[in-house]
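Anyone able to model this chain together with adenosine-5'-triphosphate?
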Amino acid sequence: MNSHQGSRSGNEPLLLVEGVGKTYVTGDEDLPVLTNVSLRLEPGEILAITGESGSGKSKLLNLIAGLDVPTRGTILSAGYAVHRLSEEELTQYRARSVGLILQFHYLLKDFTALENVMLPAYMAGMPRARALERAAELLGQVNLSDRSSHYPLQLSGGERQRVAVARSLVNDPALILADEPTGNLDERNSRNVEELLLELVRLHRKSLLLVTHDQGFAARAGNRLHLDKGELVRVVGREPR
Ligand SMILES: Nc1ncnc2c1ncn2[C@@H]1O[C@H](COP(=O)(O)OP(=O)(O)OP(=O)(O)O)[C@@H](O)[C@H]1O
Ligand SMILES: [Mg+2]
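re: yes, here you go
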């Protein structure tokens, strides 16, 4: 095990969220967003989280990504105790152990598709040639080899999301966190991004926590949890494939 990681042993879950709450204080009012969230994700597992707008799905993902700190509870992810990391450790955790895909792609507009995918690897210390080679391979896996020298503004919404999928994998993170990755796309592009994301996650044996409004996507992804009144409820039954 690498020294930067905690003591995750073979049979521990990849992600263990226990009793997590997040409350905002505005003026003299407490606004609880998440009250008591617990979940576990095994290596290679795909878990979809659905919930009404405003139910706290993005907030939960941000807490797991270490972009925000919970008011209470614990988050153990890829051997890191995410809820109590220093800034330096957080940077390391985010760079090495999680791949993020958001609803709005947030690609860097002055860099080509290929550069966008290679940059996180290059910044993490991978030699430039190796990072470019890996980025090109991943772009091929999302069927964008012929768009590698295009800038984000020259790509369609679906193509940008596919670049974001490729980029999320470049540092070989154990965990992919996707927040509405198809939220802004039409039906055909949604399906395309959905299929590529699930295919790549399985191919690279990653764990995926997927937040989506799309019940069909959630059902096709794997196990499902529903966020309601700040807590997670297991969804039983599956929709037809
Ligand atoms: N900094 C903040 N201060 C106060 N309230 C906040 C803050 N950030 C988020 N919230 C509230 O937390 C709640 C959950 O927000 P979140 O973005 O997680 O919802 P969501 O489930 O992702 O919704 P959507 O499906 O629309 O993306 C919202 O009601 C939001 O207003
Ligand atoms: Mg959201």
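The radius of gyration is 18 Å.
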